[in-house]
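Re: [ENG-882] Designed sequences occasionally contain unexpected residues at chain ends

Forwarding the minimal case from QA. Structure tokens:
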């Protein structure tokens, strides 16, 4: 095979790292792949690191030693996050999204990869320093959002079921009060799905009163898990009713929903960017 020029090799290295985020890759892998010395690969990686920092697409983390290597940590720049959330808030505020009964239509956006990926990066940036070990969500439209967050963090995802499933084996079940319907419902999780005493990050798409989030916290207690954070895409602030949980991070706020006028107002969290920069604390 014809030997690559340095510019071509750097592009190939960048593509390999970005295609395998959060995975530690030894320098010997690149040296053998491109038929060059590890010292040359180290110089290439320094250049790639600088390029990623300048473009705001993430960073490279280097671990020295025999078992060391390099891994790509995907991130999103503050400017890009601000622009994206402002644009998303405007899209969600369109009057066509208001449904009968006072609901907000978000399904199309929650299944759009172009929307999901930046949201996953924002949640990952907010909670990475808390070192979660697993991302947990409930069996709703929040599953895609939790999945991209787990991918950005390099973590597994666990889905809580709304009811018992025979195929899940022995499960732990609890009752909870749904914040939207005020009805008592059941959530369950297979005993095999989550090891005890894990550090858990909860991700969901919408929070009204916080009943579902409180139910998840109570279920995690049954697994002796530590809920290190709760992230939701949209939180309603239409009523003055206090939430049933605290210490959560909501990216967007629903501040008005007028069925008569067909008007809704959704805005980014006022303190959001301080939280994204690592100042978020429960």
């Amino acid at each position: 095979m014809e030997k690559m020029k340095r510019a071509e090799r750097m592009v190939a290295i960048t593509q390999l790292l970005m295609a395998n985020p959060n995975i530690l890759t030894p320098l010997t892998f690149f040296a053998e792949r491109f038929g060059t010395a590890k010292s040359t690969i180290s110089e290439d990686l320094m250049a790639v690191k600088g390029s990623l920092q300048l473009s705001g697409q993430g960073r490279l983390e280097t671990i020295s030693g025999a078992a060391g290597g390099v891994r790509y940590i995907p991130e999103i720049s503050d400017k890009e996050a601000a622009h994206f959330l402002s644009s998303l808030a405007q899209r969600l505020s369109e009057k066509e999204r208001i449904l009968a009964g006072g609901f907000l239509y978000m399904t199309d956006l929650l299944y759009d990869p172009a929307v999901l990926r930046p949201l996953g990066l924002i949640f990952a940036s907010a909670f990475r320093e808390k070192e979660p070990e697993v991302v947990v969500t409930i069996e709703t439209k929040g599953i895609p959002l939790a999945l991209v967050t787990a991918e950005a963090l390099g973590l597994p995802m666990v889905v809580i079921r709304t009811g018992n499933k025979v195929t899940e084996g022995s499960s732990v079940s609890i009752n909870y009060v749904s914040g939207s319907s005020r009805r008592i419902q059941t959530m369950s999780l297979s005993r095999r799905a989550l090891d005890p005493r894990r550090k858990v990050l909860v991700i969901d798409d919408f929070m009204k009163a916080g009943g579902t989030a409180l139910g998840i916290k109570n279920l995690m207690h049954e697994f002796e898990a530590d809920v290190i954070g709760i992230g939701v895409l949209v939180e309603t602030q239409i009523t003055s009713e206090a939430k049933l949980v605290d210490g959560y991070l909501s990216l967007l706020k629903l501040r008005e929903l007028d069925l008569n006028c067909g008007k809704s107002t959704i805005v980014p969290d006022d303190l959001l960017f301080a939280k994204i920069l690592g100042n978020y604390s429960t």
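QA comment: On inspection the terminal residues look reasonable. The chain has two domains: 6-74, 78-279. Proposing we downgrade this to a documentation issue.
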